[in-house]
């Protein structure tokens, strides 16, 4: 089992074979559970996109009919646009905020444990509380945010969750605030891998704090950033709970997202084929982004 | 230390899996130890929904050979869970039909046992809501409960304003608006609203459909106009809490009424049982009464809207006969009496049952309340059809836009009609 | 495959924290504190609302304007909730599920991650992409097929169903793989020369080095399992098996809800997470990344 270096051409073949065996042996315990209980149902649900199924009767092959209905459906396009809007706002803002606070809270500060805990609290606070308090803060007439905006001379501050234009920014704001602590934890773990002597060497060279951040911290965190970026992208495209509690997709359809459409069409309305077709679209988008990021990361690793 | 970490993890995991295998389990035999037939009934919030306990206990007393086992499901996502369970081939015998739209879905898919013969035995004149379960001449469920809308009012606030309660007996919506305006007082945290209309679209739309005779599935929504205009006008004048505030702050109608913040409130009869319980436990000190829902004209005819709740038999049930017996019992006079005694309005409405209800301690039993419970007509809140839930979704979305002022009333109504015609069907 | 900026680890390394800036330390520091204090307050406002609501009557929870200090403190909410629902059972179930799922996720996830990060074999990246791809499908889309598989296996309405469902997710594999990539290959090469097997390298070198990642994976998995509602809701029918989140939702009725009780329960349900969080914190301050080779 032990692999020694350097290898001759002959042993390299054997090494590859034994590597395959060793690699799989590591992956197998997780993969078994994963394959049966996640991969199979996922493939089944994607196959449903070509069927007509109400969860009870025998499924009927309909070819591309579900997709045809989808591209002519106004609600689908609205939800797709809203989801993309949400992701474009949510991903970079959360990423920057999480990274910034992780770096800040990785320092020797008095009370650092308290601050870390406090920043993680939004993630474990009841969603109803989150929705009510954010809606209160952003209340068009009485909310402190708009009172502040009026005080600094903005006569017509946004209507936030009661306005079709501003509801999505309000949701993004609340969601960045909620997820910040979650991704900060991941960055904190990543920061522990950076050897301290790198910073010391840089300091000897006279690098400023900002230079150290860009030249040491950011590159060293690349694998973590890759992980955070992908998880953030995926979770943004799948966003459900927060929107459901904060605006229920409203007013009108202004914050309706794809997951809500998938849920409504599938389990609520019993149109599982159509629901799967929508998830297929979501899946393809997210997968494309992921693969692009994956390739980009692999290139930068070399 | 390093090895320690791994072994601890592994040991915890292994131990956990072993103990987990022991947990749970299903009593699939269908019989109790003493030979009684077990009947499983899917329902919601067993602990806080008194009529379920009343029906089950009553049924068990009448049928000592059957033991009813409630399958308790959370009310919030009840239909989603039942859909999933049935997709997996679950054999729970009796299913409670939360609303008629779900019912028509389960019924048309063939997931329920036909109960047409049993339905024909019931008197449609007295079994309120029965016709809602007619799917092309076939019935798959029998209603045991029928809620309809009345006008709740705060007796103290009315007295303070010097308004006689009898005035509410025959109230038009114009009268309601005038009265609500006069009852509004105070400011800021002390403001008392003359009326509270909850954020649901039905408060406006189902009222209009029932009283103006419009078709909610029809695709032409001009008949909403009067009701919307009155509501928007009251909202504009500060008589109603702004819809946007109520919605975003998740203001419950209970908050508004039970803390004395609203004088008048159209709401379903289910709220009476909550008020009864809260008055008894001292949670609310509001003195409340019930009046008929206001009407378009004051000709004495009362038309309101409501929605029935029913029991159905699962096609996969292994005890169909016992299950049918349960469904029939719940819809019968004996079942209705048990439901009424729990403070809930049964589907079967006879004078004897009304008397049982009004004899309950705490129920307002003056003439106004009694007339509230004898509406001339109860129209189904949302007509049943394969388009119902799609139309419902559109109506909800456009209702939000009209009520937040994002769309003018005319634009909103036009958009509703356009979307229903284009997107549904 | 690995980042090249990390030099081979020295035996003794100082903690990997950003050193204090030398110039104007007090001004910067004061600014950082100010920012943190303001932010912490802002961040805790909804939690404060939760606590305040847990001491009110149901009808007082939502009001305009918000009433931060209850008119009357209903401390009895915190005793009443234990009588209203079998909270002990729910808490026990939640603790059990969260611990088991976290342990399994951490164990199998970190094990599989080694295969993905440190062993080269054909098909590895494709397999990894399959893992990633499944995360991209929303659960709402495949919950019914998954339920049917579980029903056929006779596992519905058992804790085991949830354990199997959530313990082998792709999240842990992915997180650990990314972390392993930052550990220099030289470490494992050296160990290989010393005659350690790959399993030995994982257990004796890599695992101890990845404590911060293990801690964050454990913490996040625990929190997600603890707060999960839809999974337990769909799979657990028997009241004796319910978790705390289901218990909280049982206060939501058909037409209304007991919000004071929900908030009381939510406050209670945050406490165990807080304990776990404070315990896990010590792994983020030790700077152990490079000091593991002893």
From TrEMBL, chain A:
GO terms for biological process: transmembrane transport. It is found in: Cell membrane. Residues 80-293 form the ABC transmembrane type-1 domain. It is a multi-pass membrane protein. Pfam families: BPD_transp_1. PROSITE patterns: ABC_TM1 (PS50928). It comes from the Bacteria. Keywords: Cell membrane, Membrane, Sugar transport, Transmembrane, Transmembrane helix, Transport. The keyword Transmembrane helix applies. Its main location: membrane. GO terms for cellular component: plasma membrane. InterPro entries: ABC_transporter_permease (IPR051393), MetI-like (IPR000515), MetI-like_sf (IPR035906). The chain crosses the membrane at residues 21-51, 84-105, 117-138, 158-177, 272-292. Belongs to the binding-protein-dependent transport system permease family. This is Multiple sugar transport system permease protein/alpha-1,4-digalacturonate transport system permease protein.
From TrEMBL, chain B:
Pfam families: SBP_bac_1. The keyword Transport applies. One of its GO terms (cellular component) is cell envelope. Transmembrane segments: none annotated. The keyword Transmembrane helix does not apply. Residues 1-22 form the signal peptide. It is found in: Cell envelope. Its main location: other. PROSITE patterns: PROKAR_LIPOPROTEIN. Keywords: Signal, Sugar transport, Transport. Belongs to the bacterial solute-binding protein 1 family. This is Multiple sugar transport system substrate-binding protein. It comes from Kribbella caucasensis. The lineage of its organism: Bacteria, Bacillati, Actinomycetota, Actinomycetes, Propionibacteriales.
UniProtKB/TrEMBL annotation, chain C:
Belongs to the binding-protein-dependent transport system permease family. It comes from Kribbella caucasensis. Its main location: membrane. Keywords: Cell membrane, Membrane, Sugar transport, Transmembrane, Transmembrane helix, Transport. Residues 1-21 are annotated as: Disordered. This is Multiple sugar transport system permease protein. GO terms for biological process: transmembrane transport. The chain crosses the membrane at residues 30-51, 95-116, 128-148, 160-180, 201-223, 259-279. One of its GO terms (cellular component) is plasma membrane. It is a multi-pass membrane protein. PANTHER family: ABC TRANSPORTER PERMEASE PROTEIN MG189-RELATED, ABC TRANSPORTER PERMEASE PROTEIN MG189-RELATED-RELATED. Residues 91-280 form the ABC transmembrane type-1 domain. Residues 7-18 have a biased composition (Pro residues). The keyword Cytoplasm does not apply. It comes from the Bacteria. It is found in: Cell membrane.
């Amino acid at each position: 089992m032990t692999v020694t270096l350097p290898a001759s051409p002959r042993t390299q073949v054997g090494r590859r074979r034994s590597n395959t065996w060793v690699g799989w042996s590591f992956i197998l315990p997780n993969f078994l559970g994963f394959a049966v209980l996640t991969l199979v149902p996922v493939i089944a649900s994607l196959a449903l996109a070509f069927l007509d199924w109400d969860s009870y009767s025998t499924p009927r092959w309909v070819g591309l009919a579900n997709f045809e209905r989808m591209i002519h459906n106004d609600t689908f396009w609205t939800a797709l646009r809203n989801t993309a809007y949400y992701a474009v706002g949510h991903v970079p803002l959360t990423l920057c905020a999480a990274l910034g606070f992780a770096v800040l809270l990785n320092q020797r500060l008095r009370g650092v444990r308290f601050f870390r805990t406090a920043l993680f609290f939004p993630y474990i606070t009841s969603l109803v509380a989150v929705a009510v308090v954010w809606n209160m803060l952003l209340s068009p007439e009485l909310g402190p945010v708009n009172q502040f905006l009026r005080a600094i001379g903005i006569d017509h501050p946004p209507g936030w969750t009661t306005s079709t234009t501003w509801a999505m920014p309000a949701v993004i704001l609340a969601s960045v605030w909620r997820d910040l602590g979650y991704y900060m934890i991941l960055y904190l773990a990543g920061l522990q891998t950076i050897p301290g002597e790198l910073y010391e060497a840089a300091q000897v060279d006279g690098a400023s704090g900002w230079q150290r951040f860009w030249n040491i911290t950011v590159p060293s965190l690349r694998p973590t950033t890759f992980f955070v970026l992908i998880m953030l992208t995926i979770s943004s495209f799948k966003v459900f709970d927060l929107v459901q509690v904060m605006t229920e997709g409203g007013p009108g359809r202004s914050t309706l997202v794809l997951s809500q459409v998938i849920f409504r069409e599938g389990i609520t309305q019993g149109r599982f084929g159509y629901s799967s077709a929508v998830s297929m679209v979501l899946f393809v988008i997210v997968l494309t982004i992921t693969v692009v990021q994956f390739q980009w990361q692999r290139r930068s690793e070399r | 230390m390093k090895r320690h970490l791994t072994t601890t993890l592994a040991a915890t995991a292994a131990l956990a899996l072993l103990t987990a295998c022991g947990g749970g389990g299903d009593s699939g035999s269908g019989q109790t130890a003493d030979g009684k037939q077990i009947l499983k009934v899917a329902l919601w919030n067993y602990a806080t929904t008194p009529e379920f306990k009343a029906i089950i206990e009553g049924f068990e007393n009448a049928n000592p050979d059957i033991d009813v086992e409630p399958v308790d499901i959370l009310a919030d996502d009840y239909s989603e869970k039942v859909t999933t369970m049935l997709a997996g081939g679950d054999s729970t015998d009796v299913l409670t039909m939360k609303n008629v739209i779900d019912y028509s879905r389960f019924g048309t898919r063939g997931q329920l046992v036909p109960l047409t013969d049993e339905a024909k035995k019931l008197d449609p004149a007295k079994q309120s809501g029965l016709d809602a379960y007619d799917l092309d001449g076939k019935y798959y469920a029998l209603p045991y409960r029928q809620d309809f809308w009345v006008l709740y009012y705060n007796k103290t606030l009315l007295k303070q304003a010097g308004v006689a309660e009898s005035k509410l007996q025959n109230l038009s919506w114009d009268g309601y608006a005038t009265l609500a305006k006069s009852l509004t007082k105070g400011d800021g945290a002390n403001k008392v609203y003359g009326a509270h209309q909850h954020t649901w679209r039905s408060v406006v739309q189902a009222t209009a459909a029932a009283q103006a005779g419009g078709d909610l599935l029809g695709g032409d929504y001009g008949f909403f106009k009067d009701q919307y205009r009155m509501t928007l006008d009251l909202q504009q004048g500060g008589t109603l809490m702004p819809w946007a505030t109520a919605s975003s702050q998740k203001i419950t109608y209970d908050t508004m009424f039970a803390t004395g913040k609203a004088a008048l409130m159209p709401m379903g009869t289910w709220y009476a049982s909550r008020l009864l319980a809260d008055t008894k436990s001292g949670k609310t000190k509001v003195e409340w009464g019930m009046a008929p829902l206001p009407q378009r004209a004051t000709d004495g005819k009362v038309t309101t809207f409501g929605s029935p709740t029913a029991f159905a038999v699962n096609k996969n049930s292994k005890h169909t006969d016992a299950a049918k017996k349960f469904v029939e019992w719940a819809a019968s006079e004996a079942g209705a009496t048990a439901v009424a005694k729990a403070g809930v309005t049964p589907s079967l409405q006879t004078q004897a049952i009304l008397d049982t209800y009004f004899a309950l301690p705490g129920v307002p039993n003056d003439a106004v309340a009694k007339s509230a419970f004898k509406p001339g007509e109860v129209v189904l809140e949302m007509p049943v059809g394969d388009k119902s839930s799609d139309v419902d979704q559109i109506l909800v979305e456009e209702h939000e836009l009209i009520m937040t002022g994002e769309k003018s009333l005319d634009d909103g109504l036009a958009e509703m009609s356009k979307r229903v015609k284009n997107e549904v069907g | 495959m690995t980042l090249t900026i990390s030099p081979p680890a020295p035996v003794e390394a100082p903690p990997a924290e950003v050193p204090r800036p030398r110039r104007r330390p007090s001004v910067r520091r004061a600014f950082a504190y100010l920012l943190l204090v303001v932010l912490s307050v802002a961040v805790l406002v909804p939690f404060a609302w939760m606590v305040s609501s847990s001491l009110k009557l149901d009808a007082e929870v939502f009001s305009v304007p918000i009433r931060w200090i209850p008119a009357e403190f209903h401390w009895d909410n915190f005793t009443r909730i234990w009588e209203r629902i079998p909270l002990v059972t729910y808490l026990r179930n939640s603790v059990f599920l969260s611990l088991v799922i976290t342990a399994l996720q951490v164990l199998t996830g970190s094990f599989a991650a080694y295969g993905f990060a440190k062993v080269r074999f054909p098909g590895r990246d494709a397999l990894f992409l399959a893992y990633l791809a499944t995360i991209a499908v929303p659960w709402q889309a495949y919950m019914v097929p998954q339920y049917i598989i579980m029903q056929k296996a006779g596992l519905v309405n058992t804790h085991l169903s949830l354990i199997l469902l959530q313990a082998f997710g792709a999240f842990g594999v992915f997180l650990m793989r990314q972390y392993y990539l930052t550990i220099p290959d030289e470490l494992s090469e050296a160990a290989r020369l010393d005659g350690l097997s790959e399993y030995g390298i994982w257990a004796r070198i890599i695992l101890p080095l990845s404590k911060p990642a293990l801690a964050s994976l454990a913490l996040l998995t625990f929190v997600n399992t603890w707060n999960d509602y839809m999974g337990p809701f769909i799979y657990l029918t028997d009241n004796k098996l319910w978790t705390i989140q289901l218990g909280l939702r049982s206060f939501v009725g058909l037409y209304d809800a007991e919000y004071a009780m929900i908030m009381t329960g939510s406050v209670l349900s945050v406490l165990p997470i807080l304990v776990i969080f404070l315990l896990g914190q010590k792994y983020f301050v030790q700077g152990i990344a490079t000091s593991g080779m002893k």
